[in-house]
């Protein structure tokens, strides 16, 4: 069997093309999907299972039916993943451009719905090593983003560094009815710069055939009824790390042993309540009779110097707790995360907090760089969409994206630093780093509205102050043209 994992992307594509000679498109898609299901998809589904609290402890068994078989799961991976994505993307990211029109158009695309998809994309990347999002034109004619499960995506890369996408296969299950029969179908989509081809087969067997129900071949989208294609498959990706390894890869053994130790300890504690009887010269026929006599009369018959002793299992909980504490420290260390249960975390100064968040920051620096690369790959799609909508040609314009991290800070120090940064940094940067601000753009808009209202009220405030001073002096305030009108009438008389 050919080791696909050990191949470069160029070698793999060469092999695929060699295999494809004499094959039609449906057969090529079928071969790729079947290989994906055997090698890549199980690893992705395992990562999803661990996130959903289904680790290796679920395979734990008891040697005897009478013994406890506890399976205790801890949401360790979920906590680690959610901490990273919320730290980096819980606060709305900031989009900036030199052109005000370009910035306005970009913020129109990245509304609350799109930002939620971007956050979901980050979670998917951390869970499974790489996350995917599809660009499409919605029914209302706006550009939309849709996060797709990684276990549905088969990318065909144009280079070994995985920076350019040649084509992409999406495969997913779907429930359908054939007459009165409920069936599970497997649908596959082949996306390229030339459009999308669709295929379908029954799940679990059969051959892929053109999907007549959904359309065997279509363009990427339509404008006023005319077919349009992007210059590349409309899919973008974010990697958790350069090797596209999920977070689970680094902490699986620790999670498994943590859950296993807790479960086994629970078994011992449960079974310890059940005494083990040691019989000497028991006069009964068998052990079943002994159990029956104990339940019915709380007494048993023995012979001679016989008797009944009891044993009870002993568990050194200090050793168990010490091991679990060690596992917990190692888990957060290897995952490059912050243990929020650290008793010293709450009283830490700003500098100490930065030190404790150093590993998490380092991990999120890499992830933020991946997001920035994704936005650069998205730019041609955005610019083409803006041209189609008549919003302008921004091909030569640039924009930047900054993630506003949700770090725990010493508020007093942070506010003081923000005040001292006036004149050195832009107002947007200062506002974004203020501990009381969640959305820098919204805060700046609110500040502008309040300043505009204050300017509108200023003449009335000044006029009121003038009237107050005049009353104190025993004179009438000047009324401008209205005040001069009576004198003009008297002159006319």
Characterization of the model:
With 493 residues, this protein is of the alpha+beta class. Among the domains are: 149 residues, no CATH class; 57 residues, no CATH class. The chain is 47% helix and 19% strand. Strands 4, 5, 6, 7, 8 and 9 form a six-stranded antiparallel sheet that branches. Strand 4 and strand 5 form a beta hairpin. The termini are far apart.
What's the number of extended β-strand segments? Answer: 15
Number of contiguous helices:
15
Distance between the termini: 115 Å
Structural shape = flat
Report the helical percentage.
40-55%
Largest sheet: 6 strands, antiparallel
Computed structural class = alpha+beta
Q: What is the alpha-carbon Rg in Å?
A: 34 Å
Poorly predicted spans: 478-493
Strand content bin: 15-25%
Determine the mean pLDDT.
85
How are helices and strands ordered from N to C? HHHHEHHEEEEEEEEEEEHEHEHHHEHHHH
């Amino acid at each position: 069997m050919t080791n696909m994992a050990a191949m470069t992307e160029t070698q793999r594509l060469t092999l695929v093309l060699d295999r494809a000679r004499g094959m039609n498109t449906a057969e090529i898609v079928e071969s790729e999907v079947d290989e994906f299901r055997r090698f890549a998809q199980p690893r992705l589904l395992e990562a999803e299972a661990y996130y959903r609290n289904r680790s290796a402890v679920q395979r734990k068994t008891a040697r005897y039916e009478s013994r406890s078989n506890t399976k205790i799961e801890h949401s360790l991976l979920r906590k680690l993943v959610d901490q990273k994505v919320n730290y980096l993307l819980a606060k709305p990211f900031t989009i900036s451009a030199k052109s005000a029109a370009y910035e306005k158009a970009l913020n129109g695309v990245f509304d609350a719905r799109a930002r939620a998809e971007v956050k979901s994309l980050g979670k998917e990347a951390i869970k499974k090593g790489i996350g995917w999002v599809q660009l499409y034109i919605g029914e209302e004619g706006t550009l939309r983003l849709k996060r797709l499960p990684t276990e549905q995506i088969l990318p065909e890369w144009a280079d070994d560094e995985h920076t350019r996408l040649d084509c992409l296969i999406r495969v997913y299950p779907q429930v359908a009815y054939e007459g009165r029969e409920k069936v599970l179908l497997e649908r596959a989509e082949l996306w390229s710069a030339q459009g999308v081809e669709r295929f379908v087969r029954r799940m679990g067997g059969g051959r892929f055939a053109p999907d007549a129900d959904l359309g065997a071949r279509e363009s990427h989208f339509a404008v006023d009824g005319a077919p349009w294609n992007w210059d590349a498959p409309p899919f973008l990706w974010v990697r958790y790390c350069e090797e596209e390894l999920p977070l689970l890869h680094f902490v699986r053994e620790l999670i498994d042993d943590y859950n296993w130790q807790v479960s086994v300890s629970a078994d011992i504690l449960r079974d310890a309540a059940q005494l083990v009887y040691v019989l000497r010269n028991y006069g009964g026929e068998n052990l079943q009779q002994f159990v029956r006599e104990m339940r019915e009369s709380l007494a048993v018959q023995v012979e001679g110097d016989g008797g009944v002793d009891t044993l009870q299992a002993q568990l050194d909980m200090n050793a168990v707790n010490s091991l679990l504490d060690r596992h917990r420290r190692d888990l957060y260390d290897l995952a490059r995360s912050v243990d929020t249960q650290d008793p010293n975390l709450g009283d830490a100064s700003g500098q100490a907090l930065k030190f404790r968040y150093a590993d998490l920051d380092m991990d999120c620096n890499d992830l933020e760089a991946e997001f920035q690369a994704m936005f650069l790959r998205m730019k041609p799609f955005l610019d083409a969409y803006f041209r189609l909508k008549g919003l302008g040609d921004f091909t030569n314009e640039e924009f930047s994206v900054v993630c506003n991290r949700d770090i725990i800070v010493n508020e007093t120090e942070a506010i003081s630093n923000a005040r001292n940064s006036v004149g050195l940094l832009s107002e947007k940067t200062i506002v974004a780093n203020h501990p009381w601000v969640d959305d820098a753009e919204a805060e700046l808009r609110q500040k502008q509205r309040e300043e505009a209202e204050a300017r509108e009220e200023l003449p009335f405030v000044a006029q009121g102050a003038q009237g107050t001073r005049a009353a104190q002096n025993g004179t009438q305030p000047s009324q401008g043209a209205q005040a001069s009108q009576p004198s003009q009438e008297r002159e006319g008389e």
